[in-house]
Amino acid sequence: MTVLHFSTYVIKKLFQKPATHLYPIKKQKFFERTRGHVAIDIDACIFCGMCSRKCPTGAIGVDRTAKQWDIERLKCIQCSCCVEVCPKKCLSMENAYTAPSEGSVKDVFHARVPDNQPDR
Ligand code: SF4
Ligand code: SF4
Fold first, then answer.
1. 36 and 78 Cβ atoms separated by less than 8 Å
2. How many other CB atoms sit within 10 Å of the CB of residue 105?
3. Residue with CA nearest ligand 2 atom 6
């Protein structure tokens, strides 16, 4: 590359818009089939623990007694393995990514207590 080519290239780049977005400040538009994060229909979950056993990163926790399902979002690698093994098909991949964070991001879900049963 000659000096002239190099100078032209540098000047052109100085006045171009950046190729990257100011994420997460500027919202990204996700593709329809992006594997962003795991979602759960907690009312359909039977707390069998299959998703937790198959998760390669140990991101999912299942407590059958407390009827609790949780996921550490930033441990998840979006492999979709949990979605495939769930016998109740209550897991799915949604396309938005979890927002970046310096710490862990844990989402906890509890089964709803039926109206005719007292809270524990
Ligand atoms: S595999 Fe499905 S039904 Fe079983 S605990 Fe996980 S989400 Fe619930
Ligand atoms: S998508 Fe993969 S890594 Fe994420 S929770 Fe499911 S099994 Fe674990």
1. yes
2. 15
3. 82
Q: Distance between CA atoms of 115 and 96, rounded to whole angstroms?
A: 33
Q: Which of 64, 83, 89, 91 to mutate to test the pocket of ligand 1 (most atoms within 8 A of CB)?
A: 91
Count of domains forming the chain? 1
CATH of the domain at 51: 3.30.70.3270
Q: How confident is the model at residue 35 (pLDDT cuts 50, 70, 90)?
A: very high
Whether residue 39 contacts residue 84, with contact meaning beta carbons closer than 8 Å, is answered with: no
55 Cβ inside 6 Å of ligand 2: yes
Give 73-110 pLDDT, tens digit per residue: 999 999 999 999 999 999 999 999 898 889 999 999 99
pLDDT score recorded for residue 1: 61
